[in-house]
Batch of 3 targets.
Target 1
Amino acid sequence: MWRLKTLTVFTALGLLISHGAFAANGIMGFSWVIQSGTPIVTEVKPGFPAAKAGLQRGDWLMSVNGRSLQGLNQYQAKSLMAGQAGQTSSFVISRNGQQYTVRLTRVPPPLPTQPTVSPVPQRGSFGKRYTLHQGYPLIHGGASGRLAARHPP
């Protein structure tokens, strides 16, 4: 009975997502913190819209879409900067005393990647040899090289 309800919920969510009820939040490819009451860029990820537009670490974010970001807390500033993939925002930034306008179009977040698995056993912090299998460490024991522990079923 529980499984039937779960499938129904997942089916309903799938239909809502496929019909645009939940749009993916877009990302612009930079991180920021609030310093002295104003957001400042702390990291720009290469290949993302922020890097392509010339945003740099240390740029002060003065406003977004005509709304000032000064004096806001992190939650308020984040809500003004958030948007869906494909949506464009206009930022006024301050760099070395000069103000610039930068337009950024959000992109969908990248899909998570599977960690790379090395078939060659590695040495862990306790000197045991291990390999990764489906994200779980397989610990190899003794001189025989047989498997000493397995991942959970």
Target 2
Amino acid sequence: MTNKLHTSLKTQEIFSSLGQSLSLQPFILSKLAIALSIRKGALALSDFATDNNGLELSRQVIFGDHDLLFRSLIVQNEGRALREEDYFPDLVKAHLDRGAKLLEDEKRYTKDFYNHLCRLARRHKPPCMALICPFCLLFHMKDRDFRFKRCFL
């Protein structure tokens, strides 16, 4: 079982740039990137065609205590059961690299990035059929008192 992955060089550059301008570390940026990618929907074949010359991130850094929740979100997004080998690092890396580009776009076209993310969360379209959605998860995770709730949006 692999516990580390290498992002693309482009993702490393994006995380470095966003990290400097927003004072956010890769463990936060990776969760935001994956949530944006899941929000966009299914991955295309081109999303898997990236290099491995970027940051080395461990599974713990990417997901923290929420590995099972993110796995559930990705499985729901894929619409099929996933073997561990398919999920990590392949699908996670594809979502991370695609999400980093989406995160960069969101930052580029807004003046107040944090408020913009909150507005994105309010405008998301359910299916938030499960107890959580990626944005609800991220906004509840910052409160160390994470409880399973229905989507508040």
Target 3
Amino acid sequence: MHLKDPVKKILLFLVVTILILLALVVLFRNAILTAAVETGVTMLTGFKTEVESLRLDPPGTLEIRGLKIHNPSSFENPVFADIPEIFVQVDVGEILRRDRAHFYYIRLNVAEVNVEKTRNGISNVSMLSSVGGKGAPEEKKETPAEKTVEKAA
């Protein structure tokens, strides 16, 4: 096969590039998914989220280790939730065939959940963002420049 035709060269280049990209996605899927879970949970809750490790074994096994959801800075305890392990085995075929999931096994190890109120009475639970919502606003810290001084007339 001679690759003198420019169209054949371009097609070969595209096929090789796609195969390399697919191989990279497969090799780095856990790192990609870890970043996606951290970003997704942070966006859903409004609280910074960290994941120690994540492993996806197709079809249908997911293991997350070291999930920490952090409180906003206005709370004393830095951690809202510490979940050392989430393990799920799901029937992927059932999800694809219907609008429901059949779980073979779920293991959820929750070490701590800290529900706390600020001095102004706003709880961290009320500040959680919901899907499509914003949750309660984070408490505004008062700085000297923000104080209002009334002048006598």
